[in-house]
């Protein structure tokens, strides 16, 4: 067995064990959030999803995704995307006021649900999103790391988790890197853990909706038979409410 094989196996164990802990830790909270989502679907509400920097990978996972909810609108500003400027995206997340600008454009209603993805959960953009949404009477789900937030500088004076209706903890260690175990320097786990949490939530929502007799608006893959036709109906329903659908 080569040293490379051992390394791969060790890292695989780190990820698998982390996901097991994430699922166990969040079992009750996932049920609570699934109930919030089911109530929103019943009320013909929208699920708004927001993040900055690499947390936008989680937003992409929620939006226009085969097997995903169609009633999702990404809350987004180009300055927050690292590919539009890595250093400037960090500065944008730390700038007070951007959240208010983005939310004004997106709109909020009490029967909507806002998800804010931010592993550190301390910068003004994610924190102000949560504060403003809560003030508007919209439930806020924070997908964050309680451990990372505890050690990060409180640039907004408070944290995302402290202003959320429900917290889903991705349990990412401060600094995000996971390998090697004795001095982590590489292999961030936040995207994997956060995407896993989102899909655990989708499974719970699906089961609860089926039990309640509620039909979920779900995208089909455009590359399977009948996918385009099924998606066309959803586009007619949501395109005016979700400009990002194009």
Plain-language structure description:
It comes from Saccharothrix hoggarensis. This is SIS domain-containing protein. Residues 33-211 form the SIS domain. InterPro entries: RpiR-like_SIS, SIS_dom, SIS_dom_sf, SIS_GmhA/DiaA_subfam. There is one protein chain. The chain is an alpha/beta fold and 246 residues long. The protein is built from nine helices and seven strands. It has helices at 3-25, 27-42, 56-62, 86-93, 98-106, 124-135, 146-151, 190-212, 227-238, and strands at 47-51, 72-75, 113-117, 140-144, 166-169, 177-179, 186-188. Strands 2-1-3-4-5 form a five-stranded parallel sheet, sandwiched between helices. It has a two-stranded antiparallel ribbon with strand order 6-7. The longest helix is centred in the N-terminal third of the chain and has 23 residues, at 3-25. It is globular.
Topology:
Layout: H1 3-25, H2 27-42, E1 47-51, H3 56-62, E2 72-75, H4 86-93, H5 98-106, E3 113-117, H6 124-135, E4 140-144, H7 146-151, E5 166-169, E6 177-179, E7 186-188, H8 190-212, H9 227-238
Parallel strand pairs: 1-2, 1-3, 3-4, 4-5
Antiparallel strand pairs: 6-7
Helix pairs in contact: 1-8, 2-8, 3-8, 5-6
Structural class: alpha/beta
In round numbers, the mean pLDDT is: 93
The geometry reads as: globular
Q: How large is the count of helical segments?
A: 9
Helical content, roughly? Answer: 40-55%
Number of strands: 7
What is the terminal-to-terminal distance? Answer: 51 Å
The major pleated sheet works out as: 5 strands, parallel
Estimate the strand proportion. 5-15%
Strand order in the largest sheet:
2-1-3-4-5
Spell out the helices and strands N to C.
HHEHEHHEHEHEEEHH
Radius of gyration: 18 Å
Low-confidence stretches: 1-6
């Amino acid at each position: 067995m080569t040293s490379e094989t051992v390394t791969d196996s060790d890292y695989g164990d780190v990820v698998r064990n982390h996901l097991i802990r994430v699922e166990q830790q969040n079992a009750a909270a996932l049920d609570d959030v699934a109930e919030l989502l089911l109530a929103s679907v019943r009320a013909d509400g929208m699920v708004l999803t927001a993040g900055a920097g690499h947390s936008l990978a989680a937003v992409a996972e929620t939006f226009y995704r085969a097997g995903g909810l169609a009633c999702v609108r990404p809350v987004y500003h180009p300055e927050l995307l690292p590919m539009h400027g890595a250093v400037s995206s960090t500065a944008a997340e730390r700038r007070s006021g951007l959240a208010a600008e983005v939310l004004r454009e997106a709109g909020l209603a009490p029967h909507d649900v806002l998800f804010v993805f931010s592993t550190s959960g301390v910068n003004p953009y994610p924190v102000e999103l949560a504060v403003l949404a809560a003030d508007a009477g919209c439930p806020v789900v924070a997908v964050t790391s309680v451990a990372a937030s505890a050690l990060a500088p409180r640039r907004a004076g408070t944290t995302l988790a402290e202003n959320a209706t429900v917290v889903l903890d991705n349990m990412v260690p401060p600094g995000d890197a996971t390998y090697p175990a004795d001095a982590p320097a590489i292999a961030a786990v936040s995207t994997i853990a956060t995407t896993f949490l989102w899909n655990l939530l989708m499974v719970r929502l699906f089961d609860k909706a089926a039990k309640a007799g509620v039909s979920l608006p779900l995208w089909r893959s455009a590359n399977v038979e009948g996918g385009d036709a099924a998606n066309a109906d959803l586009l007619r329903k949501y395109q005016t409410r979700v400009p990002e659908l194009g």
